[in-house]
Structure formats: C-alpha cells, structure tokens
C-alpha cells in the first residue's frame, strides 16, 4: 500500500487532517508576493474609466483583503451581463493577470454591447502565498454552494446573486501547473486521508465545459482564438486530460454545479473554465497571459453573436 506520509510531510496515512494538521500546514505557508501591489494598485488605475467596487472583505489572521470587481460604467438593463473571474485558485498567476490585462486593454471595447463584470482575484491570500487553498485548507473552487465554508466563494456568490438569470456568459481563468502534481494534489490526498495517485500534467491550453450544459461550438471558438497565441493540449495515451475523456480536441467536461465549481454560479448559457500550462517549455508567462486575454475576448464575441 502506498504511504501518504511518504508523499506529503503532514498527516498520517489513511487519516484525514484535523485542526493540528491544518494549523501545521498553515504555519508553513509563506507570503511570496503582494496582492496590494499586483492587484489593488492595478485595479485602482482603472477607476477613471470604469466602476470599481469592493464586493467583500476577508479578515484572516494573516491580513485583511478587500475583494474588488470592475464593471463597465455604461451599465444598462437591456444589455446582457457577462462575467470574467480570475484567481479563484490564487497560485494560478495568468488567471489573475489575464483578467487584469483584459480589463485594462479591452474592457472599453464592449461599451454599449454588454454589461461586463470582472473579478480579477477571487482568492487574494492564496495569490500572495501561491497556494490553491485558503488559510482554512479549503479549496474555493470546490466550494461554490449554499452556506459555503469558503469566504472567497461566498463573497463572489453574493456579488452575482442579484444578477442571476441575466448572465449570458461566464469565463473562469485557471492554470494547470507542475505544482499540481508536486504539491497540491499530494496535499489534497493527505488532507482527506487518501492515497495519492500520480497523474499527468497536460502540455498546453484546454477548456472545461459543463456536463449539464455543453456548448461545443462556443468552446471551439475560444480554442480557435487561443491557438493563435499558444498551443492546445493534446490527449494523453488514454485519450484523456487530467483523467477526463476529451469530448472534442482541447475540451473536457465537468459537472460544474455538482462539484461546486466557480463556472456554475451564474446560470449563464455559455460557460467555460480555461486551463493554461505555464511550465511548458513551449510557452512563456506572457504567452499565458495573452492566451487568457484571447480566451476572454473570443468568449465575449461568441456570446454577443449567438446570444
């Protein structure tokens, strides 16, 4: 039998973490970058052109983090509403900076066409510490459901709740990294008292569609735009990406609502989760950001043309 402890240095094989293990895990997290410098100051520079608001505030022992969103200023009741989210997993850097880059360079292009809402960094503590979970060892992107234990998820759900039924599109920006296999999946197995089973990190960009509401033409339109920026991930030897069968080149499906994923929160017709591979020898950090921007623009353009 595989030994979880040999794979991850916290916890005992077969035993889920209790408070002591979670406290030990948290004590080992280190702040590596600044949410204030990288995100808040970037959002502040947008205030002259767009509406910026604080939709929540996370008060942790490690600090207080205001949660910011950016809206198109010409908000009109007759226009469709579209949502861009980044940094649900704070360590997935291009999701945060792709959302910010889109807001800075392209948000104004959609004035008069759609009401756009951008939440660029849903998980600021995890952004600073380059982590998947929040300080309570909870994965926000498995926590988008009623009475969520994740403050990050609960705040975003409160933001979108008054607009449910009006959303046409929601794109959630993510990465799949080498650290998924070296750190985050082993930590998950240890936390839950399970055996870690190694997987394969896909080399390239791919999308996650909704099993309950598949939109294949929408996904392919996004991939076509991204393919002009970076390469699309191929299937592995089993015809899968991260354990899920491909439903089309570069596309897998998850049951978004059942799994408590961010892309389930709006009820939009068109939803997708992006995944780019920043550790690829064939991609740079800048390419990953540009791929996220291309995905957002293609998603918006498709939704506007097919709403």
TrEMBL record:
One of its GO terms (molecular function) is metallocarboxypeptidase activity. Residues 31-307 form the Peptidase M14 domain. The active site is at residue 275. GO terms for biological process: proteolysis. It comes from the Bacteria. Belongs to the peptidase M14 family. This is Peptidase.
